[in-house]
Amino acid sequence: xxxxxxxxxxxxxxxxxxxxxxxxxxxxxxxxxxxxxxxxxxxxxxxxxxxxxxxxxxxxxxxxxxxxxxxxxxxxxxxxxxxxxxxxxxxxxxxxxxxxxxxxxxxxxxxxxxxxxxxxxxxxxxxxxxxxxxxxxxxxxxxxxxxxxxxxxxxxxxxxxxxxxxxxxxxxxxxxxxxxxxxxxxxxxxxxxxxxxxxxxxxxxxxxxxxxxxxxxxxxxxxxxxxxxxxxxxxxxxxxxxxxxxxxxxxxxxxxxxxxxxxxxxxxxxxxxxxxxxxxxxxxxxxxxxxxxxxxxxxxxxxxxxxxxxxxxxxxxxxxxxxxxxxxxxxxxxxxxxxxxxxxxxxxxxxxxxxxxxxxxxxxxxxxxxxxxxxxxxxxxxxxxxxxxxxxxxxxxxxxxxxxxxxxxxxxxxxxxxxxxxxxxxxxxxxxxxxxxxx
Length: 439
Ligand SMILES: Nc1ncnc2c1ncn2[C@@H]1O[C@H](COP(=O)(O)OP(=O)(O)O)[C@@H](O)[C@H]1O
Ligand SMILES: [Mg+2]
Description:
The protein has 439 residues and is an alpha/beta fold. It has 17 helices and 12 strands. 41% of the residues lie in helices and 12% in strands. The strands form 4 sheets. The chain has a 5-stranded parallel β-sheet, with helices on both faces. Strands 10-12-11 form a 3-stranded antiparallel β-sheet. Strands 3-4 form a two-stranded antiparallel ribbon. Strand 11 and strand 12 (417-420) form a beta hairpin. The longest helix is centred in the middle third of the chain and has 20 residues, at 168-187. Adenosine-5'-diphosphate binds next to helix 2 and helix 11.
């Protein structure tokens, strides 16, 4: 095939994946998701590290809940589907750190007018005609019904006849209890409403959130939450009160296997319609470099394609990968990661060295272990001294200070132990220094 300038974004993306055709691997998680969706009660909780693929999985769950089983077919898991899978009307909401707590969260939901994902679009009211819904198209195949037009009435939750002034919880109950029946009259049969809450970890006061969701859950309302955390208790403070609700729906997203990372490139080749090809050995190297974080695999893939473009080829071989790793080392490849890197090291070569030594500490690779990703100051002390870094403890504070990232957080309990807040950043720090000879 002759050379063509291709848009790297066709095959690779740094966005959350809604399209099942772009979603790679994760067969075990898909299976858990199907099970969780098909139990009438219960809460779904997705947790894991930053950049590991939680939000993308949640979008796939949304698609499955809507009755889009493309993903299941693609993964060859058809046999896992029950004969009559439960179907949902779905709401998707990304939390932010301004949400103070439980009440505030429910208030946000009750006023969310997002036309593809918001709760209000599903709530019947005199002012809004249900016939004005349509299916969303193409690039958001995973999504649900979309409001094309709003009626004469306003778009605030409080203007709805079923809203109860001063009682947001009751308003939420009224809204959700109306959703299934009234929408079914127009769209056929669905069983329940699924409220998906992404970035759940950033809500400031997590007390009472678990018990609130428990009290609001029913045969007709199910919650799914998603956020950064190594275990359930870091996501739901009062997880004990949720009790058995969570037993089935607890989904831990671990880093991808090497084969899954490799599959990202096969998928990209398909999305490029065969116009771009990757040398096998190159793909294997990238899979290793990205350490199971699809975010990084996508980023490197994109960089390879754009470097190949510049070279006038669509074949990504070793020489292209070398170009990319070189530009990574000089900090030109990934501006966002580089910015975080520069901010953290603050023009200190020595701090850069310390950061690298910490990033390079061998992972115990106990993937289910809570200690995953921990680094220990003591383990780098002697190498630091060998490299002429004498005042390690004076270099450290900037790395854990909030306004410079932070790139590290102290692990409570274990003394002298820290964790990289972003595993992708950790992988970047390593790559930034690969092959650089110590002075
Ligand atoms: N199953 C997957 N297959 C391919 N790429 C993925 C997959 N899951 C995530 N990604 C990619 O990884 C990056 C991070 O995904 P995201 O879902 O936002 O992670 P998280 O929510 O855990 O931070 C995105 O670039 C996304 O495109
Ligand atoms: Mg996310």
